[in-house]
Structures are given as C-alpha cells and as structure tokens.
Design a protein that fits this description.
Length: 890
C-alpha cells in the first residue's frame, strides 16, 4: 500500500476515516450470510407490512381526520366521495377510481407524481419478466463463477471458460432492449406531460386567475423602480399591465408585525390557560362554581371575573428578559394587552409614514406585475427585459402571494449569484464527505465478515445467524434513512439562503440537490462500500492515483453490492409502503398535538382542519434512487428487478390513496408538473452510470483456456455498449431540444385557442386560490381581515424613482378595469403593510372568563371574539368555526 501522504487531497480525508476498514471481512459475494441477510430483511419487513396494514384496515373507518381528510376538509369542488366503512368493502371502489381523479381534485403536481410511479411499472414489469426468463438461467445454470444463494444470479457468476464467456451476449441484448424501451416510455410520457401541462395552463378556470397572470421580477435596477417605468416596458405585451406591486424597504415594520403576531398568540394561550386553571380548581373543590349567577350581557360581566376562581399567584406570568427565565416578572395577560395595543399604534404610525415617505422607505429591486392576459405574463417571463447583465434576469411566472419568501425578495443579483455558488459548493462538499457516515452504514451491512477479521469484534460470531441477518439487513437501511432525513433539512436551508424567492422554487432546487446526493452517495458510494469494506482503502488510493480505473473498480464492485440494495428495496417496498397506508406517525402526532398543544381555539382549529401535503423536493428524489438502483442492476443483478417492480407497485397503490384521500396540494405551491420534468432528467444520470459500468465490465472480461492463458473475451459487447451510449446521448439531446422549452412555455397557438373557448382534453375542475377564497366567504359568511387594502392608505400606487407617488391609486381607471377584489388588489404587498391585528380568539366558557377577556381586550382597543367556541366540563376547548378569525384559508 502506498504511503498515506502520497494520496491526493480529498482522498486523504476519506481514507483517514476509513482506514479501520482495512481489516474488514470477506466480500459479501463470498459470504454465505449474505443471502440469509436478504431473506431476514424480507421476512421482517413482511411482518412489519402485515402489522401496519392491519392497523390501517382497523383505524381507517374510525379516524377520518387522519385517513380521509380530503372527503370533508377541502373545498366542495375538491372533495372526494368517502369510501365504504367496511373492513374490505372499500378496496374495489378505491381500485376502480381512476388516477385522473387526482388530476381533477388535487392538481397536476400530484397527478404527475403518481404518473411517474405508473411509468416505472410500465418500464420495469416487462424487463423483470424478460430478465428473469433469460438472464437468471444464463447466469445461474452450469456456470463456474463465484457465488451462491442470490449471488448465483449476478453477472459475475458467468465462468471464465471461453464457452461460458459467450453468455455475455445475453446481458448485452437485454440492455439494448431495456434502453430502447426506457427511451420510448420517456418520450411518450413527456409528450403526455407537456399536453397535460398546457391543458392545465389554458383551462378557463386557471387562465382567468390572478396567479396565472402574475410575474415576479427580481434584480430590477434603481432607475426602473417606478410603476410608470415598469408599465412602460411591459405595456408593449398583449393586453398590457393591470397592476404593479413594487416591493419596498419596510425596515422595522415586518419585525413589529411579527412581534404583534407573537404576543397575540401568547395572549390567547394565557387567557385559555387561565380558563383551564379555573376549571381544574372548581373540579378539585378549591373554587366555587358561580356560573349560575353569570350576567347574560357581556357588558355586565366583571372584567376581573377570573379572580373569583384563580388566585393571583396562579395567573399566567412571564419574564421580560431576552434570556429565558431572566428579567422582570409580569402578568402575561395584562402585559400582552398593553403591548399589542402599543404595537397596533406603532404599526399604524409606520404605515402612515411609509405611505408618504419614499426616501426613507424606498422601493427595492423586485416587483410583481399583473397582466391583463395570461400570454403576456408568459411572454414577460421569457423575454429578456434589460440590456445589461444580471438585470431583471430572474422572473417567476404563476406567482402566488402565499408562495413568496419575503426575506429573499430584494437581494442584490450579484449577492444572489455569490450565495448560489457558495450554496452549491457546500452541497458538493456534503455529497462527497457524507461518505464518512454512509461508509459506516456500509460496514454494518457486512458486520459478519468484519467480526472474522477484527479481533475485538469476534464476539459477534457467537450471535445467532438470524440476529446477524437482522443487523446486516435492517439496521443499515434504518440508519441510512435517518441520515437521509437530516440532510434535506440542511439542503433546503442552503437553497433558501441562496436567495430563491418562492417556496416552490426552493423545492425545485432542493430536488436537484437531493437527487444528486442520492445518485452519488446512496448508489455509487454504497455500491463500492457494501460487501467490499476490506477493499475501500485500496479503492480510494487507486482512484486517487489513477482516476481512470474508477469505472473498472465500480464494475467489479457493483455485483457484490446487489444484496445490500435488495435489503434496502425490501425495506422501502414493504415497510415504507405500509407506512404510507398506516399513517402511524400522523395519527400519533395528531393526538399528541390534541393533548399537548390544543390549548387555544385557534390551535384546536388548526389541529383539526389543517391538511398536509408532500415535500416534493425530497419525495421525487426518493423515487429517483429506486429508479437508479433498478436501472443500475437491470442486467448485472436481474433479481433486483422483481424487488423494484414490487416496490413501485406498492408505492403506486400507497400514493394513489394518499393523493386521493389524504394529501392536499395547495394552489399556491402548484408548479403544473415541473417536478416531473426534472425527475425524468435524473433517470438519465442513472442510465449513464449503469451503461458505463456495464461497458467497463465487458471490456475487462477475460476468458481463461485450459492452459491458463487469459484473453479479452467481450470486446464486441463493449463496443456495442459504446454505440448504445452514443445513441442515448443523441436521444437525450433531442429530447431536451424538443421538450425543454415546452415545459415552461405557453405557446401562442394554445393561448389563442384558450381565449376563443377551444375545447381542451384535460378536465381541470380544481378551485383556484382566489375562487376558493371567495367561495368560502360566501358559504361561511365570514371575511378575513388578513388582506385589507384600506389598511395601507396610499400604497396602492407605485413609485417614481425620485420618490414621488406614481399614477395608479386605487381609484384610477387601469386598476378598476383589472376587476380585482380588495383582497386581490393588496395581495402582493408585504403582509406587514396590509395585515390587520389578528382578533384575539378566546373560549366561551361557562364562568364568563373568556367573554370578560374579550371585553377587556376590546376596551384596550384590541380586536377580539369568542364566537364559535366552547369549553367542555373537563376543560377541553372546542370550536365549530369554518375558519379562524383573521386568517384566510387560501
């Protein structure tokens, strides 16, 4: 072994962490425990699957809030008919429900994810059957290669004799069939996706929405920061501009607004805590129930009625110090009322200043522009707006106020470029050096062999094989799952810190980062580590000194790592898919929240009514990893194909159920399927890796005659693989050339057809954001004060660069012609400019403490209410409100 100091920079760091592996065990391919490891993993995960699915069958009809919230918690147009309550009677109804229902009820992003899973089934099912019929006999029958158990059916099982080496023709043929079948499916599904996306964009309901016609533009230079100038630029587009929202430097106003929200929440919690304390004291006999003599009129209720039930020392208090548990101790309720009243006045004062002071509160480098036509918005997003570099280059069509990351709105374009470079540098470093903890996972997958070669681990040999099988098969995949849960949190933070201004764009960026991590770390690196722990130091040194040897080393390693991935896929397909149905964690979290956090009417409402959605930035890469594993082993270890098919089938069923009955993808986060396009491109990364490895295997293959003479035996196969790689590169180029622009474009031909009322193939009945808002107001009779245009006088117009308010006040012709409601008219102002104080929402208890708190809050000048609330005899807070006061459901 060469001295450590001869190894290159990055390899040194990896090698230093992995030197302990030099004494590791025999390769997994030669270990008899490897097959038992996989079988143990399958059996254990099958048991887990049965338990979790039984939980689902029993709990589904009893806990509609967890297992079927989309049957009643979403808008009427998006609701789906409930399934039968019987134990198995729901199955035929659910299975017969077409996946297009997801498109109609839950949006295109949700539908395209399920479409991706269906596409994987279309790809892998025929290849699974073909490879098992052709390749498994070729590899396993009458060969003399090394391996037993599942390892009898891998490419390296082919023996070295010239006659046996001819069997390499079979994997070559299957690889060509698989590759062309894969390309055909990609091409057909991309065509379908583009058509669906275009139909979605130009559907009358979506095309007429404000979201479809709004563009966010960042990096606007100072000389163009006025409504008049931006209108002048963009009025050249069809239909012109309906409204411009300029973002301004609001200085401390957002902090004041957030602080007010904080103290409003604390006041609600303190008041509710006081009520619950009163109930407890009355129940224990330490206070007398005087509710029978309570006045009927709120005006007659004593403001300090709580003093009859709760002594002063038991009232909620907190300390004012910035350090927890430090500072002056104050009564929380009295202090919060005074502080909220002060903040209300301070916020109104700041808003009045901002309305007229354009010098101290100048416009910054971003704006939302609402066009009169949808096609104009798309043309604005595609057109180069400025003649200088990095000016107005980042444009986001389909902007939605609930999707905006306001902290990133006004970042200098050069600062954003630098942040992006730094963010990707950190991401690449993480991808490379995450190898250290993942290497440990790989070692555990061959712990039996490690025990044979490391003396102080010899005690592991006394453990029963079943236990060892569980340790090797289950523990590594669980540890890997935990590691993969931590990483996306940090990667999402990097994307946010890079200046991405919308949450959906952050998820799209995260998808790229996390998919790269999955392919490099969880496939390539684990391929090298798993079953080859004893050789990892040698691998690192050889690659560091001769990088060109990497394909060959990988080609030798990949068959030996197949069993680890069999265990991994078994965990994903059985336990993972059953977890989708069982929803054990959401069920537990719901009741834990209900018990521990259901302290105020507002919190109770959100626990009972909030519907969750998927994190696309991590969900798609998780499926990408399984796709890459299946692609990588499709001919090298064909037994993996059956596991991949089974896993995708269970995931398809699980996510079909979730997107029909559980998950709710909000209109604000809808990208119209953009995640699907990125996922398709990630398939090519796995395909290229697989073809390069197979090519290396063919070129490295040697036959050995009776005399012991060795010679290259699969050069023609390797040459055909090179030809196939060239074909795939060409297909990849033309696929991007054909569809890349269409993924985000709105063609003029379709825009014209939509405006003339042309019939569209897609059926899109999903309620848009603003339509849903108006419907909810009509049904419930409750309005939301969260976006009150009158709250920001003078802010309706834009700004000239010299600080004079531009034409465009709310009463001017071009704004009234836009037909915007007051909520829409102020939608793209920063919430701190328009958001009213959230009404203090207190429980209506029998003692009158909540009503007294509302009266006291109103006396202090605060908005407050106790409507649609009650408290049970046990002191549990309840509410039947349609929406929380002061909050919009959209």
């Amino acid at each position: 072994m060469p001295p450590f100091n001869l190894v290159s920079g990055s390899a040194k760091l990896v090698l230093a962490a992995l030197l302990v592996q030099q004494a590791a065990a025999q390769q997994a391919a030669q270990s008899g425990a490897s097959t038992s490891t996989v079988i143990s993993a399958i059996v254990l995960n099958a048991i887990i699957f049965a338990i979790l699915f039984a939980i689902f069958l029993i709990a589904r009809p009893r806990f509609k809030r967890v297992y079927a919230p989309r049957t009643y918690l979403v808008t009427p147009e998006e609701q789906i008919e409930p399934l039968p309550q019987s134990l198995f009677g729901w199955l035929p109804v659910w299975l017969k429900t077409p996946t297009t229902t997801i498109l109609e009820k839950n949006g295109l992003d949700a539908y395209m994810f399920v479409e991706y899973l269906e596409m994987m089934l279309w790809i892998f099912v025929p290849i699974w059957l073909l490879s098992w019929i052709v390749l498994m006999p070729v590899y396993g029958a009458g060969t003399t290669g090394v391996g037993d158990g599942f390892n009898r059916f891998i490419l390296s099982k082919v023996g070295p004799s010239p006659q046996q080496q001819k069997r390499y023709v079979a994997p070559l043929l299957i690889q060509w069939i698989f590759t062309f079948w894969l390309m055909w499916n990609i091409r057909s599904r991309m065509s379908k996706f583009i058509k669906l996306r275009q139909d979605f964009l130009v559907s009358p309901q979506h095309a007429s929405s404000v979201q479809a016609r709004t563009v966010l533009i960042t990096g606007i230079p100072n000389e163009l920061l006025s409504e008049k100038k931006l209108r002048g630029i963009y009025s050249q587009l069809p239909g012109g501009v309906a409204k411009v929202w300029l973002n301004r430097n609001l200085k401390e106003l957002p902090d004041l607004y957030d602080e007010r929200e904080k103290w409003c929440n604390k006041l609600e919690s303190a008041e509710t805590s006081l009520i619950k304390t009163a109930y407890k004291l009355v129940k224990k006999g330490k206070a007398q129930d005087a509710s029978g003599s309570l006045p009927q009129s709120d005006l007659e209720i004593n403001a300090e009625v709580a003093d009859q039930y709760v002594p002063q020392k038991k009232r909620p208090t907190h300390k004012l110090g910035k350090i927890p548990c430090m500072g002056e101790k104050v009564d929380t309720i009295h202090w919060c009322r005074e502080e909220i009243a002060r903040l209300n006045k301070e916020i109104e004062k700041k808003r009045s200043e901002i309305a007229v002071d354009y010098k101290n509160y100048p416009a910054q480098s971003s704006a939302f522009i609402l066009f009169n036509t949808q096609i104009a918005a798309h043309m604005a997003a595609k057109a180069q707006a400025h003649h200088e570099p990095y000016r107005m280059t980042n444009r986001y069509v389909e902007a939605h106020p609930d999707d905006v990351v306001w902290a990133n709105m006004n970042m200098n374009p050069y600062e954003r470029k630098i942040r992006t470079v730094i963010g990707w540098a950190i991401t690449i470093a993480l991808i490379i050096f995450w190898a250290v903890p993942v290497a440990f996972v790989g070692i555990i997958s061959n712990v039996k062999g490690l025990a044979d070669n490391v003396p102080f681990l010899g005690w592991l040999n006394s453990i029963p094989n079943v236990v060892v099988g569980i340790i090797q098969g289950i523990l590594p995949t669980v540890l890997l799952a935990v590691l993969n849960m931590l990483l996306p949190i940090f990667l999402r933070l990097l994307s946010r810190l890079s200046g991405t201004p919308t949450r959906s764009a952050i998820e799209l960026d995260l998808q790229g980062r996390f998919a790269a991590f999955q392919i490099v770390q969880n496939f390539l690196f684990l391929t090298l580590i798993s079953g080859n722990a004893g050789q990892i130091a040698q691998y690192v040194q050889q690659v560091a000194s001769q990088p060109g040897q990497f394909p060959g080393l990988l080609a030798e390693a990949i068959p030996k790592g197949s069993l680890f991935f069999l265990s991994f896929i078994a965990l994903q397909g059985l336990s993972g898919a059953a977890g989708l149905f069982a929803q054990v964690a959401p069920l537990a979290v719901y009741y834990v929240k209900k018990f521990l956090l259901g302290s105020t009417p507002r919190k109770v409402w959100h626990i009972d009514h909030d519907t969750g959605g998927p994190a696309w930035g991590t969900l798609f890469p998780a499926m990408t990893l399984i796709t890459v594993i299946g692609t990588g082993y499709v001919v090298i270890a064909p037994i993996v194909n059956g596991f991949v098919v089974f896993t995708f089938f269970l995931f398809f069923l699980g996510y079909k159920y979730l997107f029909l009955y559980v998950y709710d993808t909000k209109p604000a986060s809808e990208t119209s399927g953009l995640f699907f396009g990125k996922a398709i491109r990630h398939i090519f990364a796995g395909l290229y890796v697989e073809m390069v490895m197979l090519t290396a295997i063919f070129f490295l293959a040697q036959s050995e005659d009776a005399a012991g003479q060795k010679s290259q035996s699969a050069i023609p196969e390797g040459a055909f693989m090179v030809v196939l790689i060239v074909i795939v590169v060409g297909f990849h180029y033309f696929l991007n050339d054909s569809f890349r622009e269409l993924e985000t474009a709105l063609p003029l031909t379709l825009a014209g057809g939509a405006s003339s009322g042309a019939q569209l193939e897609g059926n899109f009945s999903r309620t848009s954001g603003e339509t849903a808002y108006n419907e909810k107001k009509t049904v419930n009779g409750q309005g939301s004060a969260s976006h009150d245009a009158a709250a920001a006088p003078g802010l309706q117009g834009g700004l000239h660069s010299n600080g004079v308010q531009a034409a465009g006040a709310s009463g001017e012709k071009h704004q009234s012609d836009s037909g915007l409601s007051p909520e829409q008219d102020s939608a793209f102002f920063h919430p701190s400019l328009t958001g009213e104080q959230k009404p203090i929402w207190l429980p209506n208890d029998k003692f009158g403490i909540g009503r007294a708190g509302v009266a006291s809050a109103r006396k202090a000048g605060l908005d407050a209410t106790y409507e649609h609330t009650s408290v049970t005899e046990k002191g549990t807070v309840q509410t039947d409100a349609y929406e929380p006061p002061g909050e919009s459901l959209v």
